[in-house]
Amino acid sequence: MAEEKVQMRKQLGLLEGVAIILGIIFGSGIFISPKEVLEKTGSVWGALTVWAACGVLATLGAMSYAELGTALAQSGGDYHYINEAFGPLPAFLYLWDANIVFVPSTNAIMSVTFANNLLEPIFPNCPIDPLCQKLIAAVTICLLTFINAYDVKFTTRIQNVFMFTKIAALFIIILGGIAWMCQGRLEHFEDGWAGTKTSVSDWSVAFYSGIFSYSGWNYLNFMTEELRDPFVNLPRAIYISLPLVTGIYLLANISYFAVLGPVGVRATEAIAVDFAVVALGWLKWAMPTLVAIAILGGLSVHIMTSSRMCFAGARNGHMPELLAHINVKCMSPMPSLVFLMLISLIMLIPSNLTSLITYCTVVESFFTLLSCSAVLWLRYKKPELVRPIKVSLWMPIIFVAVLLVLMIVPVVSEPVAVIAGALITLAGVPVYLVLVRGQPKYLANVSVKFTHGCQKLFLTAVEDKDE
């Protein structure tokens, strides 16, 4: 019997692809962002307009990524597309920002939010000890990393359960809102444009908050090589997920406004829980649990997919060689998973991550813009490239143009945050020049010894190439 190749298995079908996209999108955004979108737009119909527009924008971006994901059918997502279109330095800087800030800080925030939703129902009238909160968050990150490293198939099956649980939670909210409105309680929509703000800056921030809730539509592209028949399942998963998300988000927000009204939405800190208290009767006790499951599922997907980006970067020599290794028993990128776990645990130490994320929000948007603009650049640079899916050019053009306009406002209104984010990114340039392009010989020798030691610890080997 021939030995199995050391490769990550193609074991993700259409259902798993949809579960990954919905799992990361249906994180905590829909349970947090409605308040900020309303505050920045000033009116009910203004907020609903932003939610609809963000859904359309995310769909255009996702369809552009369908072309990239089928034309450049390798794992790594944005990193791979930026590397192919614009070269190694921009791709490395994306990895630098992602691994130092975006991924670990997101993991830390989601795990802390999960801990809050877990503890508050158990101790409703007690202040939460920050140390207890962070210990639970750390255990959650470690447990989900272990599950992801141990068995990808088992992880995706759990993710399917998480997906249906999240959809069930949102459908409970939607049905509760419909039942509320069927009783004739429509007063909050009668003058829905009242109080609408005219500030471009406020509307820009509202769009950022809305887009944050849709973020994750590109994460399936990080795992292209593990999809069965990716040329079919990748675009289908995108086409199914984004319209479904947009419809559910719009209906959920309509339900929030119908039951709580604009005053209630502005006042709440836990919108789904407050909605349940007013509209769902005895079901209100289930809502904190459902929200916690939604966040846990989003964190699990984020850990799984982001490790593939790290793996792809290491395979191209932009990260330490060890991170491109695969566990020979589980066929998972175990070193990459452990590396991101350790960075995420470090991110739990600071008491406040908000400022760090604020600094890098514009930078992350810039790399998304750069990645999507790869569609346009590759059409010019590599017209001969085989494209199983070829989207109309107006889709990436509109996406890039809108994102570019949205990025201009923070540059004017929050220059300190933008400069700080740019400095974090530019700090990666000397790291690239010293450690990637011109690595000292003694450091290379240390790296080899460290890699050999970790190979024995993690039972890993270099990926076998297809002949």
From TrEMBL:
GO CC annotations on file: plasma membrane
InterPro entries from the entry?
A: AA/rel_permease1, AminoAcid_Transporter
Q: Where in the cell is it found?
A: Cell membrane
Example GO molecular function term? L-amino acid transmembrane transporter activity
Q: Which UniProt keywords apply?
A: Cell membrane, Membrane, Transmembrane, Transmembrane helix, Transport
- Answer whether the UniProt record assigns the keyword Transmembrane helix to this protein: yes
Membrane topology note: Multi-pass membrane protein
Keyword check for Nucleotide-binding? no
Pfam families in the cross-refs:
AA_permease_2 (PF13520)
Q: Which residues cross the membrane?
A: 12-32, 44-66, 162-182, 203-220, 240-260, 291-311, 332-350, 356-379, 391-409, 415-435
What does the similarity note say? Belongs to the amino acid-polyamine-organocation (APC) superfamily. L-type amino acid transporter (LAT) (TC 2.A.3.8) family.
User: Can you name this protein?
Assistant: Y+L amino acid transporter 2
Q: What is the lineage of its organism?
A: Eukaryota, Metazoa, Ecdysozoa, Arthropoda, Hexapoda
